[in-house]
Amino acid sequence: MASISSIFSPFRNTYRYLHRQAHENPVILFSVILGSLGPVTMIVVPQIRARLGYKPAPPIPTSYPVPDRPRRPVEGYEDE
């Protein structure tokens, strides 16, 4: 049976690696952190906005409403 320390070994090694990178290459480490926050914000921010009462704007019309009446023939401007 595997010991507890061997189960958590990958996490400990990952922590050591990230700790070393924070001192040697902080730009890379913070870039990874900011990049990983992007998908999280896509899930969390809309829920927060809904709780604060944000209502999305109504959709913009994509066509002009056609009047509900018979069409009249066009007159004038050489439309004979």
From TrEMBL:
Keywords: Membrane, Transmembrane, Transmembrane helix. It comes from the Eukaryota. Residues 68-80 have a biased composition (Basic and acidic residues). The keyword Membrane applies. CDD domains: NI9M. The chain crosses the membrane at residues 27-45. Residues 58-80 are annotated as: Disordered. This is NADH-ubiquinone oxidoreductase 9.5 kDa subunit.
